[in-house]
């Protein structure tokens, strides 16, 4: 697509788990400020694709670059690049032995060498923004799933990332908490953040996505706008998927 | 304390049966206690004269000196074993096979050896091989560390394996480097998780330091033995009882400290 302002560029990516071909010749460009939602049945490789973008999953061949920079091979530059890519996990993964505030302050202090006072002020601001400021001194285990996930989003935002990756952010939440997390993510899309969101929330894809990527069996089957995808999808596999989830 | 409800609450019939069996079992137990006490008394072992030796200042000083020596060995052994044990655990979990395989063999082999063999091996082997003399203190410490570090490395490894994978991934995804992830994210959680294990390892070390006896390092047990040799066999039971009491006190203190620590760490 737009080669000039491409924030994430994925070219010819293949990945195998043993003999299982999880990602097949994936090509995807995500422009700066664009929100791309990846849909597809479970086992289609969409989570794996999301995790290859910051190399939590190594790939067998192909090339991925972020903001024009190829994913580094060496651990130092790779860590540097990861610090600019926010990631939100299905299982929240808050540091269990740290308070909410400490969770958000940790990487800015340890990775960005920010002064504790500055990191603290920024963390409190972010926690207020996602609506969990009152919980700042609690441990993650004392929070509901929805609150934990909002803390996890604040933790990622504290690094001022160029890109945010969401790997099924609402899949392990109780139904009544899904909305509070999606509201925070939708709020972010309005701020011009480049985002890749793997999700099963069709409503979210319809309202928040700039583009929808549909994956099945390790391949990108269809890429289109949400209106087109949900009203007039081009492939049989997408139609079959939509008939099951809508 | 948490009450583990393993059994259903007993009904009236069961309660009667439990009372009956309590009575039936109490009789031989009581008889046993009476027999032990009368035997000890007949042998003159319960004489207050023999037991008053435990108030003798020289005996007290000698036992406390022994206790201090025991604590010195145990303390140094525990600190070294924690460090070496952590390194062994990290080595064994490494993705580099040239590192993980030898570590694994080393740990498995050493855990299977009796500590006394290792202590002797160091005490007699080091001078024989290198021509250098090794003090009884260091022979004991090194022998115990060889075993104990292997044992602690398994405790560490179990702790690491029990951590959810997401903890490391979250740190890595934030750009935190490997060492800091280990130091600030994984290790604090692992230590909290395995604290009860580590304390029982410390209790083990304290008791195992009595192996100093066989190479002539004067720790608590040997100082008790020396006091008996000096004073006479009629004091054996009181003095060994005093020695035993000191071991138990040290171990109870360790458990108490660990309880406080784990409450503080939540």
TrEMBL record, chain A:
<dbReference type="InterPro" id="IPR030679">
    <property type="entry name" value="ABC_ATPase_HisP-typ"/>
</dbReference>
<dbReference type="GO" id="GO:0005886">
    <property type="term" value="C:plasma membrane"/>
</dbReference>
<keyword id="KW-0813">Transport</keyword>
<comment type="similarity">
    <text>Belongs to the ABC transporter superfamily.</text>
</comment>
<keyword id="KW-0029">Amino-acid transport</keyword>
<keyword id="KW-0472">Membrane</keyword>
<dbReference type="InterPro" id="IPR050086">
    <property type="entry name" value="MetN_ABC_transporter-like"/>
</dbReference>
<feature type="domain" description="ABC transporter">
    <location>
        <begin position="8"/>
        <end position="242"/>
    </location>
</feature>
<dbReference type="GO" id="GO:0015426">
    <property type="term" value="F:ATPase-coupled polar amino acid-transporter activity"/>
</dbReference>
<keyword id="KW-0547">Nucleotide-binding</keyword>
<protein>
    <recommendedName>
        <fullName>ABC-type polar-amino-acid transporter</fullName>
        <ecNumber>7.4.2.1</ecNumber>
    </recommendedName>
</protein>
<dbReference type="InterPro" id="IPR027417">
    <property type="entry name" value="P-loop_NTPase"/>
</dbReference>
<keyword id="KW-0067">ATP-binding</keyword>
<dbReference type="GO" id="GO:0016887">
    <property type="term" value="F:ATP hydrolysis activity"/>
</dbReference>
<keyword id="KW-1003">Cell membrane</keyword>
<dbReference type="GO" id="GO:0005524">
    <property type="term" value="F:ATP binding"/>
</dbReference>
<dbReference type="InterPro" id="IPR003439">
    <property type="entry name" value="ABC_transporter-like_ATP-bd"/>
</dbReference>
<dbReference type="InterPro" id="IPR017871">
    <property type="entry name" value="ABC_transporter-like_CS"/>
</dbReference>
<dbReference type="InterPro" id="IPR003593">
    <property type="entry name" value="AAA+_ATPase"/>
</dbReference>
<dbReference type="Pfam" id="PF00005">
    <property type="entry name" value="ABC_tran"/>
</dbReference>
UniProtKB/TrEMBL annotation, chain B:
<protein>
    <submittedName>
        <fullName>Amino acid ABC transporter permease</fullName>
    </submittedName>
</protein>
<keyword id="KW-0813">Transport</keyword>
<comment type="similarity">
    <text>Belongs to the binding-protein-dependent transport system permease family.</text>
</comment>
<dbReference type="InterPro" id="IPR000515">
    <property type="entry name" value="MetI-like"/>
</dbReference>
<keyword id="KW-0812">Transmembrane</keyword>
<feature type="transmembrane region" description="Helical">
    <location>
        <begin position="60"/>
        <end position="90"/>
    </location>
</feature>
<keyword id="KW-1003">Cell membrane</keyword>
<dbReference type="GO" id="GO:0043190">
    <property type="term" value="C:ATP-binding cassette (ABC) transporter complex"/>
</dbReference>
<dbReference type="GO" id="GO:0022857">
    <property type="term" value="F:transmembrane transporter activity"/>
</dbReference>
<keyword id="KW-1133">Transmembrane helix</keyword>
<dbReference type="InterPro" id="IPR043429">
    <property type="entry name" value="ArtM/GltK/GlnP/TcyL/YhdX-like"/>
</dbReference>
<dbReference type="GO" id="GO:0006865">
    <property type="term" value="P:amino acid transport"/>
</dbReference>
<feature type="transmembrane region" description="Helical">
    <location>
        <begin position="20"/>
        <end position="40"/>
    </location>
</feature>
<feature type="domain" description="ABC transmembrane type-1">
    <location>
        <begin position="67"/>
        <end position="258"/>
    </location>
</feature>
<keyword id="KW-0472">Membrane</keyword>
<dbReference type="Pfam" id="PF00528">
    <property type="entry name" value="BPD_transp_1"/>
</dbReference>
<feature type="transmembrane region" description="Helical">
    <location>
        <begin position="116"/>
        <end position="147"/>
    </location>
</feature>
<feature type="transmembrane region" description="Helical">
    <location>
        <begin position="235"/>
        <end position="257"/>
    </location>
</feature>
<dbReference type="InterPro" id="IPR010065">
    <property type="entry name" value="AA_ABC_transptr_permease_3TM"/>
</dbReference>
<dbReference type="InterPro" id="IPR035906">
    <property type="entry name" value="MetI-like_sf"/>
</dbReference>
């Amino acid at each position: 697509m737009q080669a000039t302002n491409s924030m994430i560029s994925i070219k010819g990516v293949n990945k195998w788990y043993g003999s299982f071909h999880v990602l097949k010749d994936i090509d995807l460009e995500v422009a700066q400020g664009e929100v791309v939602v990846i849909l597809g049945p479970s086992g289609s490789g969409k989570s794996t694709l999301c995790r290859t973008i910051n190399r939590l999953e190594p790939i067998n061949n192909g090339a991925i670059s972020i903001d024009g920079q190829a994913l580094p091979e060496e651990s130092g530059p790779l860590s540097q690049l990861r610090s600019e890519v926010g990631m939100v996990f299905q299982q929240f993964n808050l540091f269990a032995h740290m308070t909410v505030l400490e969770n958000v302050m940790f990487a800015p202090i340890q990775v960005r060498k920010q002064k504790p006072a500055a990191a603290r002020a920024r963390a409190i601001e972010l926690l207020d923004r996602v609506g969990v400021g009152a919980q700042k001194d609690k441990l993650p285990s004392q929070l509901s799933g929805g609150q934990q996930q909002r803390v996890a989003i604040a933790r990622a935002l504290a690094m001022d990332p160029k890109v945010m990756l969401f790997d099924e952010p609402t899949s392990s939440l109780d139904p009544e908490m899904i909305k509070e997390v999606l509201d925070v993510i939708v709020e972010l899309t309005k701020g011009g953040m480049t985002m890749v969101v793997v999700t099963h929330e069709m409503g979210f894809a319809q309202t928040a996505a700039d583009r929808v990527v549909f994956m099945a069996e390790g391949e990108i089957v269809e890429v289109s706008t949400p209106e087109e995808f949900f009203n007039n999808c081009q492939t049989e596999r997408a139609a079959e998927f939509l008939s099951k989830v809508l | 304390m948490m009450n583990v409800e393993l059994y259903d609450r007993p009904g009236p019939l069961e309660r009667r049966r439990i009372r009956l069996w309590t009575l039936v079992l109490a009789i031989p137990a009581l008889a046993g206690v009476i027999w032990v006490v009368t035997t000890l008394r007949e042998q003159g072992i319960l004489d207050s004269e023999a037991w008053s030796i435990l108030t003798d200042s020289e005996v007290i000083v000698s036992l406390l000196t022994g206790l201090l020596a025991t604590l010195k060995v145990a303390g140094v052994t525990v600190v070294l074993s924690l460090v070496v044990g952590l390194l062994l655990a990290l080595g064994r979990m490494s993705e580099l096979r040239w590192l993980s395989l030898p570590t694994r063999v080393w740990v498995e082999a050493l855990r299977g050896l009796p500590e006394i063999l290792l202590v002797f091996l160091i005490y007699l082997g080091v001078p024989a091989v290198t021509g250098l003399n090794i003090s009884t203190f260091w022979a004991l410490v090194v022998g115990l560390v060889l075993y104990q570090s292997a044992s602690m490395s398994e405790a560490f490894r179990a702790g690491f394996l029990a951590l959810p994978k997401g903890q490391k991934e979250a740190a890595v995804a934030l750009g935190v480097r490997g060492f800091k992830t280990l130091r600030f994210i994984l290790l604090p959680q692992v230590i909290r998780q395995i604290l009860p294990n580590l304390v029982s390892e410390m209790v083990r070390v304290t008791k195992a330091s009595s192996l100093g006896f066989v190479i002539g390092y004067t720790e608590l047990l040997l100082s008790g033995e020396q006091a008996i040799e000096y004073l006479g066999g009629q004091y054996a039971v009181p003095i060994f009882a005093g020695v035993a009491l000191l071991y138990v006190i040290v171990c109870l203190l360790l458990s108490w400290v660990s309880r406080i620590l784990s409450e503080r760490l939540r």
